[in-house]
Amino acid sequence: MRTAVAGAAAAAALAAGCGSGSGGSGSTGSPAASGTGSPVSASAAAASAAADNGVAGQSADQVLQRAVQALKDAGAVRAAGTVGSEGGQITMDLRLDTTGDCTGTLSQGGVGSFQVVKSGQQLWVKPDQEFWQTHGGPAMAQLVGDRYLKTTSDNPDFGEIGSLCDLTALADQLGTGKSGLAKGGEENVQGRPALTLTNTSGTGTGTLYVATTGEPVPLKLAKDTGAVEFSDFGTPVPSATPGPDQSLDLDQLQQPSSSTSVV
């Protein structure tokens, strides 16, 4: 069965939002489970006491490029928060790295949520019951049950998710298309002092918060439509993947009729 998960389009909106300077203040639990609050990690606490990294004395463009490079150098990060899209607010909580692996959740009001696991080219997606109520119906929900749908990142229906899992691509998006950046004052984000970089475009005003101590990593990306926080820099993406008993291979599904397609 050719499955077009609506959340994949939501993932595209998330990636576009980050690239255009939207993002926001993430309150999150673990990537693969729900939760509230995001305690400052030991590494963040240590960084807050680290030496000044000099970004306050640099131009806005220099600060941005240092932040982009620091994000890439971290190798892995947790991105959590909400972003606005044409379909409504999208909530994300993902751990992703520069190899393109990731794990976490994506959700959208009125659509539902789904868990995502990507390792290499292999991709697993598990929609919740709310998703099946509006996409696929009871028969499909019963067929899949509490299992992941297994596919690959080459599947065009899931290409947006593959892109969203790429930390290098995300960092590059943060560093492009930012004309007229303005430096602002310092604020506290996740217990660390951060310099603000503000950009105004046709889509609104976005603010990037860059750490002024330790590595100059981006700590938060905010816009009127939402905010995403970055944390757990350098923490590896969990390597566990769903086993055969936990997943259903999309290639093994046959589409009996167009009426049962999940779109």
Detailed description of the structure:
This protein is an alpha+beta fold. The chain is built from seven helices and twelve strands. The chain has a twelve-stranded mixed β-sheet with strand order 7-8-9-10-11-1-2-3-4-5-6-12. Helix 1 (6-19) crosses helix 7. The model is unreliable at 1-42 and 254-263 (pLDDT under 50).
Write the layout of secondary structure elements.
Blueprint: H1 6-19, H2 42-48, H3 60-74, E1 76-85, E2 88-97, E3 102-108, E4 112-119, E5 122-127, H4 129-134, H5 137-144, E6 148-152, H6 159-164, H7 167-174, E7 182-189, E8 192-201, E9 204-211, E10 218-223, E11 226-231, E12 247-249
Parallel strand pairs: 6-12
Antiparallel strand pairs: 1-2, 1-11, 2-3, 3-4, 4-5, 5-6, 7-8, 8-9, 9-10, 10-11
Top keywords for this entry?
263 residues, alpha+beta
User: What is the typical, i.e. mean, pLDDT?
Assistant: 78
Shape: elongated
Main beta sheet: 12 strands, mixed
- The secondary structure category is alpha+beta
* H/E element sequence: HHHEEEEEHHEHHEEEEEE
Low-confidence stretches: 1-42, 254-263
Strands ordered across the widest β-sheet: 7-8-9-10-11-1-2-3-4-5-6-12
Proportion in β-strands: 25-35%
In short:
The protein has 263 residues and is α+β, with helices and mostly antiparallel strands. It has seven helices and twelve strands.
